[in-house]
Write a structure and sequence with these properties.
Low-confidence stretches of chain A: none
Number of helices of chain B: 13
Shape of chain B: elongated
Number of domains of chain B: 2
CATH topology of chain A: Rossmann fold
Shape of chain A: globular
Largest sheet of chain B: 10 strands, mixed
Order of helices and strands of chain B: HHEHEEHEEHEEHEHEHEHHHHH
Number of strands of chain B: 10
Number of helices of chain A: 6
Low-confidence stretches of chain B: none
CATH class of chain A: Alpha Beta
Oligomer: heterodimer
CATH architecture of chain A: 3-Layer(aba) Sandwich
Distance between the termini of chain A: 19 Å
Number of domains of chain A: 1
Strand content of chain A: 25-35%
CATH superfamily of chain A: P-loop containing nucleotide triphosphate hydrolases
Largest sheet of chain A: 6 strands, mixed
Strand content of chain B: 15-25%
Distance between the termini of chain B: 27 Å
Chain lengths: 228, 373
C-alpha cells in the first residue's frame, strides 16, 4: 500500500527565497514515509527542525528543495489555493496553543472548517455538535474558548481537526501546554481515533510519554533524521 | 462568505465598530439629506413653473428666488408701461408671517388685485369651500388648505394681519404646492394699507400674445435696468442652475464623506487584521483559500458600511425634514433611487476601504501568521 505521506529529500533554507545564500538550513535532506493508519511521533530538541518538517508535511510551508506527496499528490504541483484545499480536505491540525477563534463558541469553532469548505450552516452545526459530544464536550457547546480549560480547548481543537473527515491529523506539541493528566487524556483521544477510526496521526513533540502511544518514533536533530 | 461569522467578528470590538459605522452614517446622511432637498427643490420648481407659464415675473434685479425677494415701487410699474404688447400688469405683495427657526415661514399673505388671484394660483385652482375674491371686493381673504387645517378655519371666520381683519370667503383645495397651501390671499390695496408700505415684491406681466413673451421680457429689462423679467424659460434656467449647484454641493459633501468614511473603514479593518493575524493563519491552516479570506474580510467591512448606510438613509430623511424649514416652500423628496444611491455608496465605501486590509490578510503567510504572538 502506498504511504499517505511521503517526504523525499526535503531541504529547507531560510533566506534563500529572497535570492540570498542559505542562511539557516533548518532541514538538511529529510526522507520519510508515513503509512496510512499509523501513529507516528517525531521527536527532537528545540531547534531540531521538527516543527518546520510538520509544517511542510501539512502543506503550510513549501520546501526549498525535495518533494512531499500527500496521498500520492505532489504538493509542488499545486498553487497556494490547491495547498489550501489539501489542508482543508486531507489534514486536520492540532496546535500547542489550541488556536481557537476567541469570538466564536466551541460549536462555531468546529463548524468553521466545514463552512469554509462550503457546507451549509445547519449541516455543519449538526456535525460540530456530534463531534464535540464525541470528545466529551456536550455540555460546553456554547462556551467561548476563554470559558474553557486548556484541556477542553484542546478537545475543541481536536473536534475541529476532525470536522472535514481528513485522513491525517498533524499535532504540534498538542500536550505542550497541558498538565500530565490532561495531556494523557488528549493522547488517549488521539490514540482512540487512530485505533478505532483509522486516522493517520503524526505528532511533533519532545514529550517522551508520547512515544508510548506511537507505532513509530522518528528522532531528528539539526535537520537530519537520526533514527526511525 | 460567512456573514454570521463576519458579524461576530465586527461585534467583538463593539465601540470601534460603532464609531466606524457612525463615520459612514454621517456621510450617507449628509448625502441623502442634501439630495432630498435638491429633489424637493426640483419638484417645487416644476410645479411652480407650470403656474408661471405664459406670463413674465418681474422682480428686483438679482434678488432671490425662493422666498426672499427685493422690493419694487409704483415707479417700476410706470417705467415699463412704455413696453408694447402687454395685456396686464399685476403687482404682488408678499408678507411672510411667523418665521420659525428650522420650520420656515408658517404662512405667507399674498396681496393681489381682486379678480386676478389666478395669476398666483393658476387657472385650474378649485375651492374646497366658498369662492374667490371678486372684482372690487375688500376686507376678504381666500386661504390655502394647510392654513385652514392648521388654524381650524372655515368660511365666515376671520384672518388678521396687523390689526386688519379679513373675512374668509373661500378655502382652496389642497394643491401640494406649499406656496399655495400655506398662503392667505387678500386684496392688494388692503394688504398695503395694513402693512403701511409703498413697496411690493413682484409684478406679473401678461403679454397679449404668448409668442412675444421672451421679447417683452427683454424689453422690460431694457426699459428699467433695475428689474429682472423672468419668463418660464428663464425661470427654468435659473432654477435648473440652482438645482445643479445644490447637486454639486451635495456631490462635494459626498466626496468628503467618502474619503473620511472610507478611511475610517480602512483603519478599522487594518487594525482588525493585525489583531487577528493568528486567526487568519488558523483559517488558512484549516483550508481557507486566499480568496476566501479576502471575501470574508470584505464582507466584514461591507457589513459595517451597510449598517452605517441604512442608519444614514434614515438619519438623512430626518435631517431633510429639519433642513426643509430653511428653504421656504420646499418639501424634501426622498426618492427610492436616492435611498438606494445612499446604500450603494455606503457599500462602495466599505468595499473600497476594506480592500487593502483584506488583500493584506489574504496574502499573509500561514506559518508566520500561526506563530504570531
Amino acid at each position: 500500500m502506498k504511504p499517505i505521506i511521503e517526504v523525499r529529500n526535503v531541504k529547507k533554507c531560510y533566506g534563500k527565497e529572497q535570492g540570498l545564500e542559505c542562511e539557516t538550513e533548518v532541514l538538511k535532506g529529510i526522507s520519510l514515509q508515513i503509512e496510512r493508519g499509523s501513529f507516528v511521533s517525531i521527536m527532537g530538541p528545540s531547534g531540531s527542525g521538527k516543527t518546520t518538517l510538520l509544517d511542510i508535511m501539512g502543506a503550510l510551508l513549501r520546501p526549498t528543495s525535495g518533494e512531499v506527496l500527500i496521498d500520492g499528490v505532489k504538493l509542488s504541483s499545486l498553487d497556494d489555493n490547491g495547498l489550501a484545499r489539501i489542508r482543508g480536505k486531507k489534514i486536520g491540525f492540532v496546535f500547542q496553543q489550541y488556536n481557537l477563534i476567541a469570538s466564536l463558541t466551541a460549536t462555531e469553532n468546529v463548524e468553521l472548517p466545514m463552512r469554509i469548505m462550503g457546507m451549509g450552516k445547519e449541516n455543519a452545526r449538526r456535525r460540530a455538535v456530534s463531534l464535540l459530544r464525541s470528545v466529551g464536550l456536550g455540555h460546553r457547546l456554547e462556551n467561548r474558548p476563554s470559558q474553557l480549560s486548556g484541556g477542553e480547548q484542546q478537545r475543541v481543537a481536536i473536534a475541529r481537526a476532525l470536522a472535514n473527515e481528513p485522513e491525517i491529523i498533524l499535532g504540534d506539541e498538542p500536550t505542550g501546554n497541558l498538565d500530565t493528566k490532561t495531556g494523557e487524556s488528549i493522547l488517549g483521544i488521539l490514540k482512540k481515533l487512530n485505533k478505532n477510526k483509522g486516522y493517520t496521526i503524526v505528532l511533533v513533540t519532545h514529550d517522551p510519554r508520547i512515544a508510548g502511544y506511537s507505532d513509530k518514533v522518528i528522532k531528528i536533530r539539526d535537520g537530519r533524521i537520526i533514527s526511525g | 462568505m460567512m456573514l454570521d461569522f463576519a458579524f461576530k467578528s465586527i461585534m467583538r470590538q463593539k465601540s470601534r465598530a460603532i464609531l466606524t459605522t457612525l463615520g459612514i452614517l454621517i456621510g450617507i446622511a449628509a448625502v441623502v439629506a442634501l439630495g432630498s432637498i435638491a429633489e424637493g427643490i426640483d419638484s417645487a420648481v416644476q410645479s411652480g413653473l407650470e403656474l408661471s407659464a405664459g406670463k413674465i415675473t418681474v422682480i428686483e434685479k438679482d434678488s432671490g428666488f425662493f422666498g426672499f425677494f427685493g422690493e419694487l415701487t409704483d415707479e417700476d410699474i410706470e417705467s415699463i408701461r412704455s413696453v408694447s404688447g402687454i395685456k396686464d400688469m399685476v403687482p404682488v405683495l408678499i408678507y411672510v408671517e411667523n418665521i420659525q427657526p428650522f420650520q420656515g415661514p408658517e404662512n405667507q399673505v399674498i396681496g393681489i388685485e381682486p379678480g386676478k388671484g389666478e395669476y398666483f394660483l393658476g387657472e385650474n385652482i378649485k375651492y374646497e369651500e366658498g369662492r374667490g375674491i371678486e372684482d372690487g371686493e375688500s376686507g376678504v381673504a381666500v386661504i390655502g388648505s394647510a392654513i385652514a387645517r392648521k388654524y381650524n378655519l372655515a368660511v365666515g371666520d376671520f384672518w388678521t394681519v396687523k390689526n386688519e381683519d379679513f373675512e374668509i370667503v373661500g378655502i382652496l383645495e389642497e394643491t401640494g404646492i406649499q406656496d399655495i397651501d400655506k398662503s392667505i390671499i387678500v386684496p392688494f390695496d388692503d394688504l398695503r394699507d395694513a402693512l403701511d408700505t409703498d413697496t411690493f415684491q413682484m409684478i406679473y406681466v401678461v403679454p397679449e400674445d404668448v409668442k412675444d413673451t421672451e421679447a417683452i421680457a427683454e424689453e422690460i429689462e431694457d426699459a428699467n435696468e433695475n428689474l429682472d423679467a423672468l419668463t418660464t424659460k428663464e425661470l427654468a434656467r435659473q432654477a435648473g442652475r440652482l438645482v445643479e449647484q445644490i447637486r454639486g454641493f451635495n456631490f462635494a459633501i459626498g466626496a468628503v464623506a467618502a474619503f473620511v468614511g472610507g478611511l475610517g473603514v480602512m483603519n478599522t479593518m487594518i487594525m482588525s487584521v493585525l489583531e487577528r493575524r493568528r486567526e487568519i493563519g488558523v483559517m488558512k491552516a484549516i483550508g481557507a483559500t486566499n480568496r476566501k479570506i479576502l471575501s470574508q474580510i470584505l464582507a466584514e467591512s461591507a457589513l459595517i458600511s451597510l449598517i452605517g448606510g441604512v442608519g444614514g438613509v434614515v438619519l438623512g430623511i430626518g435631517g431633510a425634514l429639519v433642513l426643509s424649514g430653511m428653504f421656504a416652500g420646499v418639501t424634501p423628496v426622498v426618492t427610492p433611487s436616492l435611498a438606494l444611491t445612499g446604500l450603494a455608496f455606503a457599500l462602495f465605501l466599505g468595499l473600497a476601504g476594506g480592500y487593502y486590509p483584506a488583500r493584506k490578510a489574504a496574502k499573509l503567510d500561514p506559518v508566520e501568521a500561526l506563530r504570531y504572538e
